[in-house]
Recover the amino acids of this structure.
């Protein structure tokens, strides 16, 4: 598999009132096309910082980030982000929220791929398809304030998927949800990713989520000056079933490995903070 | 037939939808008979009538709390007024006399006997017109300025001292400047309205722009929205509630100021009317004018609150 995202020697320093704060240091990581990568670590370890760097929302103080062999110089629709708190625009309906991105990506002629601009009907069809993908067709005309938290998060995922991104970046997408809804959305995500062969980078603090979903778990050391502590390849066969995996020895082995890293070797998070 | 009997007023749409899905289900399985279908559709409907059976008991307590306190409040006001009237030997007219006079005045609000003797309706309309023009100009200038002050750090630092300096100045202090520059009573009054209602709009719009959640701006960046889309789909809607608060404060101040300004400038207007009736020593009309000013202000405020809630969404409400 080819390397799709390449992160080399990345360092991120923030200016604060107490002087510079080094959030990330010497981060090197490659993500292959179609790979599902989970970033895991204690809070404040720079997971989200790293994701923002890949998204292009912030630029690194040192080092390089490449996506498809091109330098990441800013955010763009080819690297869609699913935000932690869904970030839907409350004055637009679910349909309009998704349409906003679709219109931007497909409504104008694409210079790099040479694709012509699409008609309104095609754009609407794309939006409807994305909402159908996450099972929200009945709620399309509702505003975010009128639907549940899980549904909002699904609209956020639909908005990201509808843009047909090369990379899907997810920042603790299910963090704010209850356990049952989270499990349901994880299953849906597994299904969607299997269907669309998306490349995904996901920030999480949930060990089970990381093992269940990903091909590769990137475990980060505690901040400040956090870096990648260990990368674990998860070679569980797909499609994965959470019930079947619950007593699979392999699954438990991976789970143990992550827990061991987080709570034995990187346990001093409280002292450091 | 049975389903018709149990129709609750809430559910016809839901039930027909239920029938449709049941029907499609029946078609797809091909096993369900027409009778089965009916039984099935009745099932969920049966529960509803019991839930809404009989009207809920009338909420007397709610009505009590909604009606009685305001009535007592009004009664207190009129009681104190009547006492004052008696203790001053009717130099302040009593509520009944004033009420009789009000009927006379409002029976013909739109008469016109020369520039200094016009019906109360004309006076109110003249004041409202001044407020509308002055306020409209202030909105046309203040809202864009507020947007720019909010968007650009440099402008914010540039204008903040000016705003802090000029905002506390009593609006009437601006009236002589207006008279000097515009050489007329009416434009001077409009100028005063303009200058006093522009500050709340600038300040609130600027605060609104500064408080646009970073998340929304991140969405805009990830979707790579055009500047026009950012303004129309993100900035404007999220600033709107703040802007409308500014507008509401501005209208409130404008209505306060117009009465004072008109007392000084004269012409036609509710403020001038008050002053004119004072010169005629017609205290009943002054009291009526006070009520009229209060009620018009109340209506303006209420209308703007209604507009504001219509444009306020989830995130801003809480």
């Amino acid at each position: 598999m080819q390397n799709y995202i390449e992160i080399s020697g990345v360092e991120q320093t923030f200016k604060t009132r107490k002087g510079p704060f080094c959030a990330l240091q010497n981060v090197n990581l490659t993500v292959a096309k179609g790979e599902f990568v989970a970033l895991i670590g204690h809070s404040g370890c720079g997971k989200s910082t790293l994701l923002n760097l890949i998204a292009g929302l912030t630029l690194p103080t040192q080092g390089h980030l490449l996506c498809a062999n091109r330098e990441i110089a800013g955010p763009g629709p080819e690297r869609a982000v699913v935000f932690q708190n869904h970030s839907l625009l409350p004055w637009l309906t679910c349909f309009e929220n998704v349409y906003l991105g679709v219109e931007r990506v497909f409504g104008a002629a694409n210079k790099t791929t040479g694709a012509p601009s699409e008609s309104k009907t095609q754009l609407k069809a794309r939006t409807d398809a994305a909402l159908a993908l996450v099972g929200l067709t009945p709620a399309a005309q509702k505003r975010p304030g009128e639907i549940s938290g899980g549904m909002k998060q699904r609209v956020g995922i639909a908005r990201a998927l509808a843009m047909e991104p090369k990379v899907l970046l997810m920042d603790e997408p299910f963090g704010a949800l209850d356990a049952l809804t989270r499990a349901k959305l994880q299953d849906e995500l597994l299904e969607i990713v299997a269907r669309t062969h998306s490349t995904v980078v996901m920030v999480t603090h949930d060990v089970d989520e990381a093992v269940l979903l990903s091909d590769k778990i990137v475990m980060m050391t505690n901040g400040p000056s956090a870096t990648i502590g260990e990368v674990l390849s998860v070679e569980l066969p797909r499609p994965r079933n959470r019930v079947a995996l619950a007593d699979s020895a392999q699954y438990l082995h991976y789970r143990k490995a992550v827990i061991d890293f987080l709570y034995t070797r990187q346990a001093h998070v409280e002292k450091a903070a | 037939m049975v389903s018709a009997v149990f129709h609750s007023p809430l559910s016809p749409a839901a039930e027909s939808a239920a029938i449709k899905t049941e029907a499609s289900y029946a078609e797809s399985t091909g096993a369900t008979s027409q009778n089965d279908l009916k039984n099935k559709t009745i099932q969920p409907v049966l529960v509803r009538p019991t839930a809404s059976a009989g009207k809920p008991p009338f909420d007397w307590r709610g009505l009590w709390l909604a009606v009685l306190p305001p009535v007592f409040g009004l009664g207190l006001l009129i009681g104190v007024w009547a006492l004052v009237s008696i203790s001053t030997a009717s130099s302040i007219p009593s509520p009944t006399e004033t009420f009789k006079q009000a009927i006379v005045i409002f029976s013909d609000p739109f008469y016109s006997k020369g520039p200094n003797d016009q019906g109360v309706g004309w006076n109110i309309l003249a004041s409202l017109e001044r407020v509308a023009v002055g306020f409209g100009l202030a909105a046309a200038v203040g809202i864009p300025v507020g947007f720019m002050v909010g968007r650009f750090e440099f402008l914010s630092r540039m204008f903040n001292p000016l705003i802090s300096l000029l905002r506390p100045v009593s609006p009437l202090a601006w009236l002589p400047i207006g008279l000097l520059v515009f050489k007329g009573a009416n434009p001077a009054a409009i100028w005063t309205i303009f200058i006093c209602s522009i500050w709340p709009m600038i300040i609130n719009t600027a605060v609104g722009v500064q408080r646009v959640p970073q998340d929304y701006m991140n969405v805009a960046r990830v979707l790579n929205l055009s500047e026009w889309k950012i303004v129309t789909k993100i900035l404007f809607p999220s600033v709107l509630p703040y802007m409308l608060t500014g507008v509401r404060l501005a209208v409130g101040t404008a209505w306060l100021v117009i009465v004072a300004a008109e007392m000084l400038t004269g012409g036609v207007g509710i403020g001038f009317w008050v002053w004119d009736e004072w010169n005629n020593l017609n205290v009943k009309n002054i009291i009526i004018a006070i009520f009229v000013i209060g009620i018009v202000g109340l209506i303006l405020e209420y209308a703007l609150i209604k507009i504001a809630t219509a444009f306020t969404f989830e995130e801003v409400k809480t």
Observations:
- The longest helix of chain A spans residues 179-196.
- The first strand of chain A starts at residue 3 and ends at 16.
- The beta strands of chain A are 3-16, 19-32, 36-40, 62-67, 70-71, 79-82, 167-171, 199-204, 216-220, 228-233.
